[in-house]
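Write out structure tokens for Glycosyl transferase.
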Amino acid sequence: MRVLFTTWASGAHLVPMVPLARALIEAGHQVRVAVPSECAAAVARTGLVPVQIGALPMAVVRAPDAVRRPRGIWPTDWPVRPTALTPEQHGVLRACGDRQVRIAEAMAQGLVAFARCWQPELVVHDAGAYAGTVAAGALGVPAVGQLWGSAAVLRLDRQRLEGPPLPGYARLMRRYGADPAREPDLWLDPCPPSLALPSRARRLPVRFVPHDGTSPDETPSPYEARRAGRHPGRHEHPGHPGRPVAASNGRHGPGGGPRRSGPVRVCVAWDDASGPPDAVRAALWAAEARGVEVVRVGSAAEGRPPAGPLHRVLPGCRALLHQGGGAAVLAAAMAGVPQLVVAPRLEHQLNGARLARAGAGMYLPADALDATRPGARAAGARLALDLFTLLEQPSYAAAAHALRREALAMPGPDKAVRAVTRLTGPAV
């Protein structure tokens, strides 16, 4: 069977699709991954076969300001209660949906042209790549949506989330002979059930499998080695040979509580190119002043050598401070690590709220941080106290370990292979 995967972005959009694609290949199926040209190298690094379908103009990809930093207080379960939203909030969601429709319009011609040539029997697309549903509709084959760790199945292609398709999306579907009411036949959902919001969509839970483009035979990170009892050096900072680490004094740790043997280690992971806001930096400095070892991933490394892929670092850490992206939430859930979320976007805020509800973390909207220098210091001090609370109160670690057990119990990609191939009929 030929299966066509598609996404409009690499990173957190591509990563959740890789395990299923590999499992399909291992089962004897043919797989291609159709992406904008700027994503082709990322696909190739996974070992999958990319198909370039043109470039996405930056003007199309860039999110409106209202989307990147939404204002006001949103209900923590807003995806399932759209009637509770204000007209201004619905305007933000409409801007999100219109942006994804523009991306789909930019992708559709190349994607549909390749699909008509290659004739896949199934299309798998990431949750925000509406062009995948367009291509499936144009060919009359099943479509599978891949979620990336959001607490909800967000139907931003619908007016007010539950209404008819957005006008631009309906026009795009008709242009390629597809029914505007067409929806994915199945959603693959890596979100642990206790974090997920209810949905009428047909969902299949699939365990999150982290992927960083490295070989399974690669030497484990120092943090993995330490957990396995192999130490990178008696007094070396992992990843930074020769740098001393904080040693346990057997008396008090961050916030005055008792310390475990060895350093208390927390991880900070940031996706924005500009790095963490000043308040987050201030919180990290306050933590380091109390003897906490801070491991930086992504743009949080701020010019330092990166500690390594997040899922390889987390097993040696006792907390994660991040923005609330789905991949980071799931990686920490799999590691059983409590999370402190400083959430800039709506989906990040939604994930943070669900973590807090499950008792496995704390969160606040990034909009609540004071951007002034004195305000950032004060906000940083409050964030540091939240971080110390995660480290010291056993309930957070217990809830995080419960979330880990739940995540590990979810079916793996091999089960998803059987489910998605059944969509194509008994001939498969």
